[in-house]
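Pilot study result, target chain (102 residues):
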Amino acid sequence: MDPQMKRGMIDVCVLKVLQKGDSYGYQIAKDAENVVPVSESTLYPILRRLESAGALTVYSVEHNNRIRRYYSITDIGRRKIKDYLADFEEIKKIYEFVKGED
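Predicted structure:
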């Protein structure tokens, strides 16, 4: 799969996980692993990129004497999911055309 396309899909999967509720890095990776396995070393740059784009916000909570960073989806992030779904409909039409009978 094209790396750029895959990157966009991972981004939207991360946002979809966060649409269910705020979460932290390790848990996000676990929640997404059945759909798209993503290592923590791949996940954190994605989270930073999404934060820079305004698609999520970050806050810290103390947990077992450690600071845990939680991520929360924003309206921009929700819009990115909607945009992805709209784009996917176009891609699906192209796929059906290419797959079609000769």
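One observation from the pilot: The chain has one domain: 3-99. A full batch analysis is planned for the follow-on phase.
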